[in-house]
Specification:
This is Aldehyde:ferredoxin oxidoreductase. The protein is of the alpha+beta class. The chain is built from 28 helices and 17 strands. The chain has a 7-stranded mixed beta sheet with strand order 1-9-8-13-10-11-12. The protein has a 6-stranded mixed beta sheet with strand order 3-2-7-4-5-6. The protein is globular and about 80 Å long.
């Protein structure tokens, strides 16, 4: 449809004018509040307390969300908010990976706070337009867009009845609508969800960045926890921000020279070492597909197995040689020389409403290839790319879709559900056409796709209540925890990674702790205390990225040449110091590693108490499905029998002579579940929590987080 026709049918509902102001050491000093029920727009001050205790990014998001909601607030209540905040470092152009923003809301999947990090231009341009954060509340009656014009100092709410909903179309429409010309398109960033987000609990948000080489608005995703579902429930169709004249000093940093020197050092490392290390500039995160398969860590057929002979059909070189465009700088914010945001151009779609269209597919990343591919036994690169595209444009989280579909496939193959229940879909492992049909059904709110779109937590309940399934078996094979689907790593042989998934605040997402190689391959953390220390430091360190607006990939997907000779190579100490230097350069705060951890601890403990306030966040909520710990079925055990038999003999001292597989499985299970409980005890102790997972008042005082509203929540649970 003609852009002028779309624009002419907008109806201005509210407009707010503001002075552009000036950023000081990474902060604008104010946040933008928009209530779409009342069409209310206002500025809110950012206090020194917020900067001291919550820093920015995820911290600001959780603080605003806490104050907007009550212990009884549900995800679809008007008072639930979506908060987008980049943090004080967000937007610098000197150091790779400094364009991240964090999105927070109460999740439709978990009924708790969720945070999801995302690239693209929206976060930095929001700050440069004068706002440290954007706080969205209320529910509109009709589809609207919110437009932030940082050039002219205006914010508007506009009724937008005719635009598309799906991400790749709407992103293009609004980029063209609000750009003055082709060159100006780089100054426009759009946030959308999609038609699938309207009918599922796993909706994502797409954040655009305009690619002038491809001449297309590309998409990055805030994928986890269903925030896109909240977005569409509020009838928000899109957010638009426009700001011209991006420069490297717009954060008005404390010391620009430090940023320049630190960035140049890392750019040289990337140039010299990336081709010898992870090849991020060629393939991005998909570089580890075959690595995970080699170490028996790739999820295969709903995490039953860790490798498969057909993985060679979807290994990274297949995507490099046949699909991923090479020779194009693919950073999703200015100055990111790691450039991991890969894309397949002119990809011909075979199914769905866009069948026959040639599109740009942003991916695949490792999580997409593993979740949409091996976990569903779809060892077809073009099938993976098609699923990847439709997940993105429909606004469906690829991780949750892949893991939930794999669960449904296993239930189908085991006869727990059948063709009558699925509405005719043959959900066998490897059936690409049934998987993609689920996606198309989600976009329309039809068929069995609606059931799968509710996620594994709710599917388990439905299958037990309506189809007589065994609840214990479904708990064992249903790879979700706290209502969030597992991301795509097999954790059976890594106790630390089991904790890295199970002992998170938001659910099993690897962005808190990825410890598989430290634990399983290199045996660097052998004792419970060692594992507990790792499960304290790494979640805090990774939380810290989300406070400041940083991407974690330049931390450990490129390493200095001498890193292996350092005392703690897994921490990449030279890069940790880089980040401390960058924060000093922007904010003037001189932090050490202990200060870094302490900043994160304040926010991490706050989030734990937030969960408790909403009726979760206790030890019982940290229980994990057994498949994340060990073999659930006879087939799983016998596929790795030598390994498991050896462990029974050497680790437990169990005599396997004459024992059945079922007897051996029972003993192994008791041992592994006991190990997880002991790890939980050790981690809670290290984090300053009691045996039920509740932060102690003493620990809160030590952190300076003994705020009355927090003490009120935990006092009766000490």
């Amino acid at each position: 449809m003609d852009i002028k026709v779309l624009r002419d049918n907008h109806k201005l509902l509210a407009e707010y004018k503001y002075e552009l102001g000036k950023i000081d050491k990474g902060y604008t000093g104010r946040s933008l509040f928009v209530n779409v029920s009342e069409n209310k727009i206002e500025s809110k001050p950012v206090s020194q307390m917020m900067k001291d205790k919550f820093v920015g990014g995820k911290g600001f998001g959780l603080w605003y969300l806490w104050n907007a909601t009550t212990p009884s607030t549900k995800w679809n209540d008007p008072e639930n908010e979506i908060i987008i905040c980049g943090g004080p470092v967000c937007g610098i152009t000197q150091y790779p990976g400094a364009g991240k923003s964090l999105v927070c809301s109460i999740s439709p999947a978990t009924d708790m706070p969720i945070d999801s990090n995302v690239g693209g231009y929206f976060g930095p341009l929001l700050k440069f337009s004068g706002w440290d954060a954007l706080e969205l509340q209320g529910k509109s009656e009709k589809d609207i867009i919110i437009v932030i014009d940082g050039n002219n100092g205006t914010v508007s709410i506009e009724e937008a009845p005719l635009e598309a909903v799906d991400g790749h179309v709407l992103g293009e429409q609004l980029t063209e609508m609000y750009a003055d010309n082709e060159e100006d398109k780089r100054n426009v960033a759009v946030v959308t969800a999609g038609s699938g987000a309207e009918h599922t609990r796993m909706g994502l948000l797409n954040f655009t960045f305009y690619d002038p080489r491809r001449k297309v608005a590309r998409l990055k995703q805030a994928g986890r926890g269903g925030i896109g579902t909240v977005f569409r429930d509020k009838k928000i169709k899109a957010l638009v921000v426009k700001f011209s004249s991006v420069k490297g000093d717009l954060n008005n940093p404390f010391d620009q020279g430090i940023l320049n020197r630190t960035g140049i050092k890392l750019h040289k490392e990337v140039h010299d070492l990336d081709p010898k290390q992870n090849n991020m500039r060629k393939i991005g995160t998909a570089n580890i597909i075959e690595v995970m398969d080699e170490y028996d860590l790739l999820p295969v057929m709903n995490y039953q197995y860790g490798s498969h002979p057909d993985t060679q059909k979807i290994k990274s070189t297949v995507f490099i040689d046949k699909y991923i465009t090479q020779g194009v700088q693919d950073g999703c914010w200015y100055g990111c020389s790691l450039a991991c945001a890969k894309a397949a151009d002119n990809f011909l779609l075979k199914t769905g409403p866009y069948k026959g269209h040639k599109v740009t597919v942003d991916g695949p990343e490792y999580e997409n290839a593993a979740g949409l591919g091996s976990n569903c036994a779809i060892f077809d690169p073009e099938g993976i790319l098609e699923l990847n595209f439709y997940c993105d444009t429909y606004g469906i989280d690829t991780i949750s879709f892949g893991t939930a579909t794999a669960f449904a496939m296993e239930c189908y193959e085991r006869g727990i559900i059948n063709k009558e229940i699925t509405g005719g879909l043959e959900l066998n492992f490897g059936n690409f056409y049934s998987a993609v049909e689920l996606l198309h059904q989600m976009s329309k709110g039809e068929g069995f796709g609606v059931v799968v779109g509710q996620g594994i937590h709710r599917m388990k309940k439905l299958f037990v209540e309506q189809y007589g399934a065994d609840a214990d078996f479904l708990f064992d094979i249903g790879m979700e925890q706290k209502g969030l689907e597992y991301s795509e790593y097999g954790s059976k042989e890594s106790l630390a990674q089991q904790g890295g998934y199970g002992l998170t605040n938001k659910g099993p997402q690897h962005d808190e702790a990825w410890l598989i190689f430290m634990d399983m391959v290199n045996n660097q953390i052998p004792t419970f205390e060692d594992k507990a220390e790792a499960l304290h430091y790494f979640p805090m360190f990774r939380t810290w990225f989300g406070l400041y607006g940083l991407c974690k990939l330049p931390w450990n997907d490129i390493a200095p040449a001498n890193n292996k000779f350092t005392s703690e190579p897994a921490k990449i100490p030279e890069h940790v110091q880089n980040y401390l230097d960058i924060v000093y350069g922007v904010t003037g705060k001189r932090l050490g590693t202990d200060d870094m951890v302490r900043e994160s601890e304040r926010v991490y403990n706050f989030q734990r108490i937030f969960n408790i306030r909403l009726g979760k966040g206790l030890r019982e909520n940290d229980k994990t499905p057994y498949r994340s710990m060990g073999p659930v079925t006879k087939e799983e055990y016998e596929s790795r029998q030598e390994r498991y038999d050896t462990q029974l003999k050497e680790k437990i001292g169990y005599d396997i002579t004459g024992k059945t597989t079922e007897e051996k499985m029972s003993v192994l299970r008791s041992y592994r579940e006991d190990q997880y409980e002991k790890l939980t005890d050790a981690v809670y102790k290290r984090r300053g929590w009691n045996s039920n997972g509740v932060p102690t008042i003493e620990h809160l005082k030590e952190l300076g987080m003994d705020m009355p509203e927090l003490i009120e929540v935990v006092r009766g649970l000490q």
